[in-house]
TrEMBL record:
Protein name in UniProt: Ribulose-5-phosphate 4-epimerase/Fuculose-1-phosphate aldolase
Domain named Class II aldolase/adducin N-terminal: residues: 17-198
Gene3D superfamilies assigned: Class II aldolase/adducin N-terminal domain
A GO MF label: actin filament binding
Length: 248
């Protein structure tokens, strides 16, 4: 029992370090929104606890030890200097962690280009290779107001289904992955696709590829999450090169 507890503690610390790194990376790419929006990750153990940011810290301030551990009812189990959790963040993240056993990490942003595409009538269009790699993983959820009503969790999970990426209409984007690294990789591709679409549409009429090319790319996107095995170590090196101290 003691060995199992020690193993879980070590595994949780690794998840904490990865999630703190993801917060720093979101800030690095300019996708943060002051102290709002959230990234979360499930910790090992039968309790189904997950980690989320303390409400009040900038993403560039997040460290492994500052993350707040909460249960599925939103009760704080363990915290650092701040123990507040944004109720809207709890609603969205608890929904995905409760409804998808494979969702080890969930990431939600209000970044401008993601919100812009979520508000576009046609949503994400196949205007780039990056977008085409996302389409088969993508779903949509209609806006219902600030996510404070716990009953929305049921509808959010219904709309998410088995997908890995979601456009929260008129609100932002969300990704889910088995690990922090995988969820962040999905997030990067989705945000890059949105950025490209906003720029392309600002230039005037756009060109769409053939249906055959879109279908080929859809098939090729099946292993997109596996790219995290290459991207995550490189992203951690990026943080280290920029002097980020997050694993404390």
């Amino acid at each position: 029992m003691q060995e199992s507890t020690s193993t879980n503690r070590e595994a949780e610390w690794q998840v904490r370090k990865d999630l703190a790194a993801a917060y720093r990376l979101v800030a690095h790419f300019g996708w943060d929104d002051l102290v709002f929006t959230h990234l979360s990750a499930r910790v090992p153990g039968p309790e189904h606890h997950f980690l989320i940011n303390p409400y009040g810290l900038l993403f560039q301030e997040i460290t492994a030890s500052s993350l707040v551990k909460v249960d599925q009812e939103g009760q704080v189990v363990q915290s650092g200097s701040l123990h507040r959790v944004n109720p809207a963040g709890f609603t969205i993240h608890s929904a995905v962690h409760m409804g998808r056993e494979d969702a080890g990490a969930v990431m939600h942003l209000h970044a401008a280009d993601g919100v812009a595409v979520s508000a576009h009538r046609d949503g994400l269009l196949p205007l780039s290779q990056t977008a085409m790699l996302c389409l088969d993983h993508l779903c949509y959820h209609e806006y219902e107001g600030v996510a404070l009503d716990l009953s929305e969790r049921e509808r959010l999970i219904r709309d998410l289904g088995d997908k890995r990426m979601m456009m929260l209409r008129n609100h932002g984007v969300l990704t889910a992955g088995s690990t922090v690294a995988e969820a962040f990789t999905y997030l990067y591709f989705l945000m890059k696709a949105c950025e490209i679409q906003v720029r392309a549409q600002s230039c005037g009429p756009t060109h769409l590829p053939s249906a055959a090319a879109i279908e080929t790319t859809r098939q090729q996107s099946a292993e997109l999450g596996n790219a995290s095995k290459l991207t995550w170590p490189a992203l951690l090196r990026l943080l280290e090169a920029n002097g980020h101290v997050y694993a404390i």
